[in-house]
Amino acid sequence: MNLPSDRKYTSSHEWVKVDGDVLAVGITDNAQEQLGDLVFVGDVNPGTTLAQGETAGVVESVKAASDIYAPVNGEIVAFNEALADAPDRINEAAFDTWIFKIRPNDMADFDGLLDADGYQAIADNG
């Protein structure tokens, strides 16, 4: 698995990348591979304040649905509206396609997330 080192990861298979004063969040290539062809990405509500680990949205494929979780405490500030009509963009380029952006209560929380090696170890163990 080739993991970009310019971001952090969660054990629930989200990637998290600093984008100015917010964090862009998507799902890993490993996650989209396991889900298969995505048919829906949504239920993300900008303006909602979430605690780390709370459900921020959902991705659905032809074979499964999976929640997407907030990687840090903060406020959802954007949803990638392009995914409403083209959820398969994630299948095509998971690491280039963010799902939502969150403004963290404390940017230091980002530092506590997994690096590429840490996520690799979790992904390798199922």
Task: Characterize the structure shown.
The chain is α+β, with helices and mostly antiparallel strands and about 130 residues long. The protein has a single domain (about 10-120), classed as Beta Barrel (OB fold (Dihydrolipoamide Acetyltransferase, E2P)). Helices cover about 20% and strands about 35% of the residues. It has 4 helices and 9 strands. It has helices at about 30-35, 80-85, 90, 115-125, and strands at about 10, 15-20, 20-25, 40, 50, 55-60, 65-70, 75-80, 100-105. Strands 1-2-3-9-8-5 form a 6-stranded antiparallel sheet. Strands 4-6-7 form a 3-stranded antiparallel sheet. β2 (about 15-20) and β3 (about 20-25) form a beta hairpin. The protein is globular, with a radius of gyration of 13 Å. It starts with 7 loop residues before the first strand and ends with a helix. The mean pLDDT is about 95.
Put simply, the count of helices is 4
Q: What is the number of independent domains?
A: 1
Low-pLDDT residue spans: none
CATH class: Mainly Beta
The CATH superfamily name is: RNA polymerase II/Efflux pump adaptor protein, barrel-sandwich hybrid domain
**What letter string, H or E per element, gives the SSE order?**
EEEHEEEEEHHEH
Q: What's the rounded overall pLDDT mean?
A: 95
Characterize the largest beta sheet: strand count, sense, and whether it forms a barrel.
6 strands, antiparallel
Rg from alpha-carbon coordinates: 13 Å
User: Level of helix content?
Assistant: 10-25%
Helix/strand-derived category reads alpha+beta
The second-level CATH architecture is: Beta Barrel
